[in-house]
Amino acid sequence: MSTKKPTPAGSVTFDVSSVATSFEQLFGDADALRAAGLTSLANTRTARTVVMQRERDNVAATLGANAPEVTQLDAAIADDTALAKSLSAQGTAAAQPPVTAAADETVVQGVVRDATGKPASGVKVSLAEPKGDVLTTTSSAKDGHFVLRHKAAAKTEVADKIEVRVHDKRHPTPIELERGNGVAFVTVNLEG
Asked: How sure is the predictor about 158, in pLDDT bands with cuts at 50, 70 and 90?
């Protein structure tokens, strides 16, 4: 006598573990592919900026530095430079393993970039209460990436906002963030 129930006509059965394995195989490399794609887009934008800069120099030599066409190219170059920096920062973030936070933990991850958009290593970064005590400090890695973690000792200790302080004269202003659940991501762009 069989204890297995018959499958009703028209129904489908499947093994949940085999479905999970299939999804892991399909999406296992998604982060690496995303990181590579973002880096490729950043490199394309950087190359485009170089070409536009040459065009801008030619137009300025022909029409003069104050020509409207030069001003338009300057704006396009600035937009592409900012986009390339953003794409590069997102590519760096996508290449990192996922960062998680416990329910009572504040986690801020990010990347530090110099004025040219390249990763800045060894930059001291702190998590602090606004206008208050430093909670934790770290330095950016070779790829500019950093992770700051702080576990609150008690509910009364938790403020609504938190600051990321960069101990570098090229970034004198703290970055203020809303404290919330999960992991916050910031990009620190150092100037000149």
From this structure: low
